[in-house]
Write a structure and sequence with these properties.
Elements lengths: L5 H14 L8 H6 L21 E6 L4 E4 L6 E6 L5 E5 L2 E6 L7 E2 L3 E8 L2 E9 L8 E5 L5 E3 L7 H11 L3 E3 L2 E11 L4 E11 L5 E2 L7 E7 L5 E7 L2
Antiparallel strand pairs: 1-2, 1-16, 3-4, 4-5, 5-6, 7-8, 8-9, 9-10, 11-12, 12-13, 13-14, 15-16
Length: 237
């Protein structure tokens, strides 16, 4: 995908907000823009970074203590609900992994990534799916009714294409806090070892490596509602 400047995307978002009708059905753009982690655009639009399934970890930012929430691997795309629960994709199902799995898994065919919970409909999560046959690349999943509802999507709209592209990127902006993934490397005995770590930048402070995966790939970061905890996927190289 062609790279697009932050200024262009910001202008698109501003226009989308200004033209969203107050009384009519909420537009795709308006709804996605109030989903957690989609409050600002990444620095550039690009194809999805390579990610792999693994186990979900969390780290408390002020304490720097990381812990694994899952075992056995196979998890992708963790996100926080408004009440602090952690959900992720396991194969093609949305599952609760913390504090305990008391919400039944919901199967979402062709699920690619969890985008975020809708703050106005707290049992609904927006999911990026692999669009087939001209279908929508986004769907709303109700954890209560277990219904999967495609979101309206206009494939000819540049605005909607840009916002969908944003859901694919790993950089997320939450107010003055930014999460992103950075490639690290060190020299091994016979070759260079490369992996990805999760960084957080708060306000004007320097970016901090919060995953410290040292050889394993850590990807798909998400921030908790209180902005104190980061969830991410840690997978083998």
């Amino acid at each position: 995908m062609t790279m697009v400047s932050r200024a262009t995307v910001t202008a698109v978002i501003a226009i989308a907000i200004s033209i969203a009708p107050c009384d009519a059905a909420e537009s795709l753009l308006a709804r996605l823009l109030r989903i957690a982690g989609l409050t600002a655009a990444p620095s550039q639009m690009r194809d999805p970074e390579d990610t792999a399934a693994g186990n979900v970890w969390t780290v408390t930012l002020d304490q720097g203590s990381a812990k694994s929430l899952t075992e056995g691997g196979g998890y992708r795309s963790p996100i926080f609900a408004a009440d602090g629960r952690v959900f992720a994709l396991k194969d093609s199902s949305v599952v609760q992994i913390a504090p305990a799995q008391n919400t039944a898994p919901v199967n979402v065919p062709n699920a690619v990534k969890l985008v975020g919970f809708d703050a106005e409909h707290r049992d609904e999560v927006v999911v990026l799916v692999e669009a087939r046959g001209g279908g929508s690349p986004l769907a709303v999943v109700s954890l209560t009714s277990r219904r999967v509802t495609p979101l309206p999507f206009d494939a000819t709209s540049q605005q909607e294409q840009l916002v969908v592209a944003e859901t694919r990127a790993q950089e997320r902006v939450y107010g003055d806090t930014t999460l992103f993934v950075k490639t690290e490397s060190r020299r091994g005995l016979s070759r260079e070892i490369r992996w990805t770590d999760v960084y957080v930048k708060r306000g004007s402070g320097e970016p901090q490596n919060v995953s410290k995966c040292d050889g394993a790939n850590c990807t798909e970061p998400a921030l908790s509602p209180d902005r104190k905890t980061v969830a991410f996927v840690k997978s083998a190289r």
